[in-house]
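Notebook, bench 3.
Goal today: get a predicted structure for Large ribosomal subunit protein uL18 from Novosphingobium pituita so we can plan the truncation constructs. The sequence was checked against the plasmid map this morning, with no discrepancies at the termini. Length recorded as 116 residues. Pasting the sequence as submitted so the record is complete.
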Amino acid sequence: MAKLSLFDRRRRRVRTALKARAGGRPRLSVHRTGRHIYAQIIDDAAGRTVASASSLVKGEKSIGANLEAAALVGKQIAEKAKEAGVTTVVFDRGGYLFHGRVKALADAAREGGLEF
C-alpha cells in the first residue's frame, strides 16, 4: 500500500468523521483548484449527486477562483439544493482547511438557506 500524502490523510479523516455523524443527511462536498471551485451535494445512501455548481461556466468566460466566485458558487448550490428538496446537509471540506474560499462558499450556502 502506497503512503498517503498529508492531504489525503486529512481528507480521509474528515470524511470518516462526517459519515459517522451524517445521520442520513446528504453531504456538501467542496473541491478547490487554483483556477476554480466546485461544490456538489451527494446522497451517499443512493450513491448519486443531487445538485452541483462550480465557478467554471461553459461557453462563457469563467468567473475565476477568488472569494467572490466562491460565494457565488455557494449561493448557486443552495438554490439548486432547494429545487431538489434538500435543506440540511453535512459540510465536507475534504482535505482543505476551513478558511478563505472554502469558508466563503460555506457562508454563502448558509445564507442561501442550507443548514449545516
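The chain has a mean pLDDT of 93. The CA atoms of residues 22 and 38 lie 21 Å apart.
Flagging this for group meeting.
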